[in-house]
Amino acid sequence: MAQIELEPLGQLPPSAASERAAVGPRPISVGWTNKTTRDLLAHAVLILGAALMAFPIYMAFVASTHTLTQTLTGLPLLPGDRLVDNYRQVLSEGLRNYGLPPIWPMLVNSIVVALVITFGKIAVSILSAFAVVFFRFPFRMLAFWIIFATLMLPVEVRILPTYEVAASLGLLNSYTGLTVPLIASATATFLFRQVFMTIPNELMEAARVDGAGPLRFLWSILIPMSRTNMAALFVVTFVYGWNQYLWPLLITKDTAYYTVIMGIQRMARASDFEPQWHLVMATVILALLPPLIIVAAMQKQFVAGLFETEK
Amino acid sequence: MQDKRVTFPGIVVPLALLLPQLAITFVFFVWPSLRSLQGSLFEQDAFGLSERFVGFGNFARILSDPGYLSALGVTFVFALATTALAMSVALALAVVADHAVRGSAVYKALIVWPYAIAPAIAGVLWWFLFNPTIGVLPRLLAPLGIVWNHFLNGNQALLLVIIASAWKQVSYNFLFFLAGLQTIPPSLLEAAEIDGAGAFARFRAIVFPLLMPTTFFLAVVNLVYALCDTFAVIHATSAGGPGTATTTLVYKVFRDGFEALDLGGSAAQSVVLMLIVGALTIAQFRYIERKIHY
Lengths: 311, 294
Hints:
The structure holds two protein chains of two kinds.
Chain A: H1 17-23, H2 32-63, H3 68-72, H4 83-92, H5 103-134, H6 140-152, H7 159-168, H8 175-179, H9 186-197, H10 201-209, H11 214-225, H12 227-242, H13 246-251, H14 260-273, H15 277-297, H16 299-310
Chain B: H1 12-40, E1 42-44, E2 51-53, H2 57-63, H3 66-98, H4 104-112, H5 119-129, H6 136-141, H7 154-181, H8 186-194, H9 199-229, H10 231-236, H11 249-260, H12 263-293
Antiparallel strand pairs in B: 1-2
Helix pairs in contact in B: 1-12, 2-12, 3-7, 3-9, 5-7, 7-9, 8-9, 9-12, 11-12
């Protein structure tokens, strides 16, 4: 089947960007000095905002490069020379005295869990959006509303019964338990539904004339055409999966299944009693890097994903 | 949904395609929620061996429980303050970034990235910055005569989790406000400027009303975030304390369910939360539907 070139679907710009482009940047028709002052003020506010965002993480990084004594006796404002030692120690040892595993296996767990959740969500949502858009069957609307219901029921409002279900299915302390219950997604399903609804009927008729069945149509046409949406969804969902906290906390008692985000809580709690802040902050940095790198590297897809999943 | 769509025939295939999503949704979302509904109407002993129908007894009990009312109050203050703080800082930054100053793309990148940070980590970062003995901020506050100790002072602990929760949410709000601002036609603002409207008058009369849909949408998203996702901020830092100063509704459900083992009460609390979150979600979707039809 020939490669079909179509515009990427579901791109956002919901804006008056076209008018802006035509008019050019908003002219500020006041005097020269006035404009300069205003620009300086704008830069000042934006620098302050950027600093406010970076400050806590910068201080965490600084703390992670000093000895414990230095963090306790007035933390310097510049990084120290213990970067390699501290990070090596958390990765291989962690806070062993508190019965906590090293950070390395926690990071591996986090990556596995985040990737399974991400690809699971995308796969499951594509399949259900495909079914809802390209088939007519009884209870179609009912299925749609059941999926919608997940939006109203975040794990926080059904903590105990969901835990009981997971326990009765033997999912405690398992990767299945950490991932599968988080794979259902109304937002991703709605996103793909929107995308699929813009597919012209002619395209599907052509595919059918060529003898393509539903699965062939899904695999050879719909999935390649929704690549940009999948990339956008990937960023947002990876961040979501990596940052999970309450659910892993509920269903893992065995430290071998800890993810790094929940491991930090145990370390911070231990550190309230016997300070180990240099190690806790090294863990914080390690735990925030993977999602941060993905958001920074795929910023365009990330912004698109944010708008697509919320609108 | 439109009906002009050409479709494939068959019933078995679509149902099979829907099965994974529906199965997970039913087992882990719908069924536990129904269990909560049912549990909220019964009184169970701690071992789950016997139960007795009590109607709305559990609801009446939690609503007259000072601990629950305190959590309700804390949640109210916490959610409103977090939402207001996260939204106002984001709006201010977005308004400034919307002006075409040099390097605004760089600023945008620098403001956006904390989106990637987990609420739990946001909490621990600020918990460290405000640490009474070694934190940077208490050292700065000391000369002002402010003694910071969130282990002892409940208001300070609440302020700390509000700051941490709002900090993490600024980037999200910033992106949506910026997108909203960029839909405002420049011609409108120029016309007002020609009529002699100053920057503040233009913001109040044109920008703010046109941003109302975005503001409403963000308010709902932020309230849901403050109700639910901030569990991680609180659990990873203050653990609801000191006393019950930072015990929100979700934190209380968690603690009562797992530590106090009050199953009926916990179920009733879950149902109350479901109602609140459900109402907010419906409000959000009604707004989106309306916008689509314009």
